[in-house]
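hi!! sorry for the late reply, been swamped w classes. u asked for the two structures so here they r. pasted raw, havent cleaned anything up. first the sequence of the first protein and right below it the tokens
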Amino acid sequence: MTAEMSDVTQAKHGRPVHHWRRDLVELAALFTAVAVADAVANMIGHGPDGPALLVISALALVATAGFHLWWARRHGHAPPAGDTGARPAAETRQAGAAGQPDDDSDDVSGTGALWRMRTTVKDEPGSLAALCTALAERRVDILSLQTHPLAEGAVDEFLLRAPGALPAAEITRAVAQAGGASTWIERADAHDLVDAPTRILGLAARTALDAAELPLALRQLLGRCTIRSLPGTPAGGGLGPEPVPVEGVLEETVMRLRAPEGGVITVERPYLPFTPTEFARARALVELDNRLGPRIPRGKDVLTLPEGNDITVRRADTADLAAARAMHERCSPRTLSLRYHGPVGDADRYLNHLLSPRFGRTLAAQTRSGRIVGLGHLLWDGDETEVALLIEDEWQQRGIGGELLGRLVAMAVEAGCESVYAVTQASNTGMVAAMRGLGLPLDYQIEEGTLVITARLTPARTPSGPSYAPALHHFGNPAHRD
């Protein structure tokens, strides 16, 4: 950014910029030419050698004009017509769309690279200037800068555009020489060009609309981290997590926040300590979620089965606890065993946790009468995501499980998850078929009868690379949405 300032002044809005020094020289030359012409005229008019002097003056003017033409072509304000010689992009670069790479004369690949970098500097005058100068010397453009004050020093977070041929190690070496310490750097993309206040407001809006968005919002706010939600009372009984004070706890690379209903949200990022600013932002998001209480979007899809029955698919939460328990009572022991991976005497004790939007998203399939006949869960498991299905015996083999699974995987893709996994038994052919029906790359792991199927996803926000779109299952007739 700084290195390009002197060069950028050579062109503005596609027109040459005239410098005052050049104009002064041309004006002085004009006055000199007038004075010389006046002196020559006086000599011609009053001397006997007037004709000879006139010829000499004409030759001098011709030589001067030729020299001026040669100089203008060599050092003019703009290249002559037909000149295709390349000049550094910084001299003629104009504003373009955000995220579009700029050409650079030092970049052999022809494209720039975006980097997110964080470094710790001393809190004293000139420290940031030294950092910017070191980056400018390597033609690194600073697109945005955030400062996180610490008790001693400050953490500066940059979004950089560097020449594509410049390695990350060279950037960090330059930063270290300029006084930066504990430097961390990773590749960024066009989504990081959104300024921090706008991004935080967008995350707050998503959290306000859907309680299940809180873990995802925290992950996007804090970068690569592991987020775990621990309920105040575990589903299987026993003691809950250690209580957390209202203001939360920050311990270097771990922050613990008080979640609603007495639970705890733990955020871990071992490769980079959290700053007080990040801790305050995360705490504000959790407080917003706490004040708004449980909430989910109320949209629904009405689908028609091949035999003509209508099924409604919608989001479910703890308000559906009674209907979900009733469905459990209608399920056979074998169906419950396949869902919960073994004998289950009291399966409904898990339902309050499964239906809570604090731990994921649940889809319910219900009949016209309002009876729930199928449940699909998308559960946030740290930095991984689990999918699970339970379909009532009478409604199996009708495509309901595939429909719910396809929608859950689409939600995972939208949330930026890299993969989803299902834990079942090797004899659960229905779940295996539903996972294969997604049309995604699958990995299988089996141990002592327990089968783990992992589907690899490509998040929708990835700007390049292969993209896998989940194959959503539809029931013959088109769906109509409320």
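now the second protein. again sequence first, tokens right under
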Amino acid sequence: MAANKPESGIQEALEDRDPNNLNQHVQIVWDDIIGEPEGARSPECAWRLSNVCFQYARNWCYMCLAVILAPPCALLLGCGFACLAFEQIWCTAPCLRCVKIYCASLRTMVASCMAATLVPTAEAIGHICRHVRVNFRKDAPEEKDLLVI
């Protein structure tokens, strides 16, 4: 019985080939592609024969392409994702860490300069402008705006 468990797990993995629903946008079912409205209908035999031709052509063409091109594509994709992982692990992450370390002192210096110059200036301007009031009057003449301070 223990021998059946791994086989059933492998069988389930082979049956569900898109467990994360990555390719739900690919609709290759006859009913999702071809539809005849009421006013334009082909004979029943032509409709059924077209459906069968579509199914066989789709299945055989996909199988041929998958057998011929899927292994090289898988090899290239595997190498590509390996290169991507290597680049992220060994290049990008260490470089970003270095930039964070180098910029930490610059950040402290810029924050200190802003606290010493910009913040008091902004507070002073805010204190001056605190009592400014702007009123718009609706009864003012149309040709000129009236601003009361």
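hope this helps!! also noticed smth abt the second:
The chain has one domain: 26-131.
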